[in-house]
Design goal:
heterodimer; A: about 35 residues; mainly alpha; 2 helices; about 0% strand; elongated; B: about 500 residues; membrane (chain B)
Chain lengths: ~35, ~500
């Protein structure tokens, strides 16, 4: 469970999202992958 | 009366019906009223915990923060997600102890863990002080949503009054069951409205989501990343950790945990809820779209509703307003119920330990009226006291973290004296900070500027923890009969 805590700039855009927002969304998904 | 207002009133009436209907076939006692007799399965627990996330914040604050402060708003889904991760480990321990000791509220949990009724009183008072601003935010948000959606056909105060009346009726009749059933309607509505708006608006105005962000990048790129000072990366990290620790200590979240059927229900919810929280991104999209489409708003919280008003016909604005109304009713009702049960179990039972179940239920219902009246007075009068409380609500409730975390292990590092002293020190620090606006540099003038952005609640929590451990160690040998260790089956 420590992994999401460890994981959680504008370009490159990923899936249409600025990189920072993509990074946060990615770790929300990876947290579930509990 | 316009079409939007008719639609909003229709959904308000459906919510009231569901809230009252929820009590059918149940003999209402304190246990049923507060935690649904600990019988809620995965779906109801999911809806009630998700309900704490999709409040009026989703409608007004999420898009509003993005509109006025940009990427700083990203802290919300981040801390909620980490709270769920932490909950996978923490909640089963709380639930197990509560089940074995017939506990139905947060104050009784702490009182039983540390065998200290005084600690229960401290927790009950702290929980109520932290909850009232949250109820006020829901009522104020409800007023703004209904007034804006109906194009001013009804005043915000009148809308807040009607909302307060609806939740008071169904909370006193159905307790947590009323909240659970109205949560079903709410989540269906918000799922449809937020996803539809979050996809339609960017495509309608910009031709897609990435083109929308590129348009924002062209006019104000600073809105897409954390600032170098103020709402910086250091602020983000300290705030999401602090809020993740405090999330389940808010009395309404704690109550939902106690209503679960079993540990696996809580774990399944922890797994699925981060994915559900991704919906907040759609609210953020609306805030970013509003930066370009409705620039110059003095109050960013109105950005979503102004954008919807200028894009859609009144009947659809009514649907959006109705979803907004429900996002206020459900969380506010759980908060109201939690606050009344917290005060009843933490204080009334202490004063009158031989009270019958019927008397306890009656006192809980009277407290519902008292709390909603206090919240409504704050809603219409506002004022500095509320603004201060609002700022420090989370920091206040987070002061229970050391006592909670060390309650999972029987240890000499935390006893009732340490827990109470630590909470008092932490709360005093938070109050001082709220009144004076002190930051870390106030106490340590020579610290690097980036460290000055650390959330001051973290500093209060650290002071609380150190003092609590020191006092516990000092008083450990003075306790003639050591506390009986609590056996926790892993």
């Amino acid at each position: 469970l420590i992994i999401p805590f460890i994981g959680m700039r504008i370009e490159p855009y990923v899936l249409g999202l600025p990189f920072l927002l993509f990074w946060i969304a990615l770790w929300m998904v990876l947290s579930s992958v509990m | 009366m316009n079409i939007a207002l008719i639609i909003i009133f229709f959904f308000a009436a459906v919510a009231l019906f569901l809230g009252i209907w929820a009590t059918r076939g149940k003999k209402m006692n304190v246990d049923e009223f507060a935690v649904g007799n600990k019988g809620f399965g995965t779906l109801f627990v999911f809806l009630l915990i998700a309900g704490e996330v999709y409040t009026t914040f989703t409608f007004l604050g999420g898009s509003g923060w993005v509109y006025s402060r940009g990427a700083a708003a990203f802290y919300v889904p981040a801390y909620i997600c980490l709270a769920y991760v932490l909950s996978y480990w923490m909640l089963p321990k709380i639930w197990r102890f509560a089940k074995n000791n017939n506990i139905i509220s947060q104050p009784t949990y702490f009182a039983a863990r540390y065998k200290s009724p005084v600690l229960g009183v401290v927790v009950a008072l702290l929980g109520t002080i932290a909850l009232i601003p949250y109820i006020v935010i829901q009522l104020k948000g409800l007023g703004i949503i209904v007034a804006e959606s109906s194009n001013g056909a009804i005043s915000p105060i009148m809308a807040s009054a009607i909302g307060a009346l609806i939740i008071t009726i169904y909370v006193t009749i159905s307790g947590i069951h009323g909240s659970a059933w109205t949560a079903i309607l709410k989540d269906i509505m918000i799922l449809f409205v937020i996803v539809f708006l979050g996809i339609y608006i960017p495509y309608h105005y910009f031709g897609g989501i990435q083109p929308m962000f590129e348009a924002v990048q062209a006019v104000s790129p600073e809105k897409l990343v954390f600032a170098s000072e103020g709402f910086s990366v250091v602020w983000f990290i300290s705030t999401i950790i602090l809020n993740a620790l405090g999330f389940y200590l808010l009395p309404q979240s704690f109550s939902v945990v106690l209503s679960a059927q079993g540990e696996r229900v809580l774990k399944k919810n922890a797994i699925t809820l981060p994915l559900y929280t991704l919906l907040l991104l759609f609210a953020f999209f609306l805030g970013f779209a509003a930066i370009i489409q409705v620039p110059g708003l003095a109050d960013g919280d109105l950005s979503l509703l102004r954008l919807v008003n200028q894009t859609f016909d009144p009947w659809f604005v009514g649907i959006v307003g109705a979803a907004g109304l429900l996002t206020a009713l459900v969380p506010a009702s759980v908060m109201l119920m939690s606050a009344s049960i917290g005060l009843m179990t933490g204080i009334y039972r202490l004063v009158k330990p031989q009270a019958t179940d019927r008397q306890q239920l009656m006192v809980s219902k009277v407290l519902v009226f008292v709390i909603i009246i206090i919240a409504f007075v704050f809603t219409i009068s506002g004022g500095e006291a509320l603004a201060l409380l609002n700022i420090m609500s989370y920091s206040l409730i987070t002061q229970l973290v050391p006592a909670l975390l060390l309650s999972f292990i029987s240890t000499k590092y935390m006893n009732k004296y340490g827990a109470i002293t630590g909470i008092i020190i932490g709360v005093s620090f938070v109050l001082y900070n709220a009144v004076t606006g002190a930051k870390l540099a106030t106490f340590f003038p020579n610290i690097p500027s980036y460290l000055n952005d650390i959330n001051i609640g973290m500093v209060a929590l650290f002071a609380n923890f150190v003092i609590a451990v020191l006092v516990s160690l000092f008083t450990h040998k003075k306790i003639v009969t050591p506390e009986k260790p609590v056996l926790v089956a892993e």
